[in-house]
Design a protein that fits this description.
By secondary structure, the chain is of the alpha/beta class. The protein has a single domain, classed as Rossmann fold, CATH 3.40.50.2300. Helix content is about 45%, strand content about 25%. The protein contains five helices and five strands; from the N terminus they run βαβαβαβαβα. The chain has helices at about 10-20, 35-40, 60-70, 85-95, 110-115, and strands at about 1-5, 25-30, 45-50, 75-80, 100-105. Strands 2-1-3-4-5 form a five-stranded parallel beta sheet, with helices on both faces. The radius of gyration is 13 Å and the shape is globular. The two termini are about 10 Å apart. The mean pLDDT is about 95. Keywords: Phosphoprotein. This is Response regulator. It holds the Pfam family Response_reg. InterPro entries: Bact_response_regulator (IPR050595), CheY-like_superfamily (IPR011006), Sig_transdc_resp-reg_receiver (IPR001789).
Length: about 120
């Protein structure tokens, strides 16, 4: 199974890539929405996207909407540690935009893997 992880925090990208690869997933990473859509256009076999909500250049909510309109079969997990609003508020917006699941940062390995297995 191929997963695309989108987060502007390089430490978060490395952490998620390590967990996912260790558990047998094929992982692509992007630090912004523009790179993510380039990767999606070249990798039609991506089945899950994990995206942060608060990012410069392109917000996660916009990314979720675009993915759902162009690739409705892709499952999306939105992650957020909050910002101007609480992380719960951002994650509710993510559900409204089309996310299939959400995780509040910080989350652990088991929580992430359980979320992916229940998609």
């Amino acid at each position: 199974m191929k997963i695309l992880v989108i987060d502007d925090d390089i430490a978060v990208l490395k952490y998620l890539r390590a967990i996912l690869k260790h558990n047998g997933f094929n992982v692509l990473t992007a630090d912004n929405g523009h790179k993510a859509f380039e990767l999606l256009s070249k990798n039609q076999d991506v089945t899950i996207v994990i995206t942060d909500i608060i990012m410069p250049e392109q917000e996660g909510i916009e990314i979720i909407r675009k993915i759902k309109s162009k690739h409705p079969h892709i499952k999306i997990v939105a992650i957020s540690g909050g910002g101007k609003m609480s992380s719960e508020s951002y994650l509710q917006l993510a559900y409204a935009a089309g996310a299939n699941a959400t995780l509040k940062k910080p989350f652990g390995d088991r929580e992430l893997l359980n979320t992916l297995h229940h998609l």
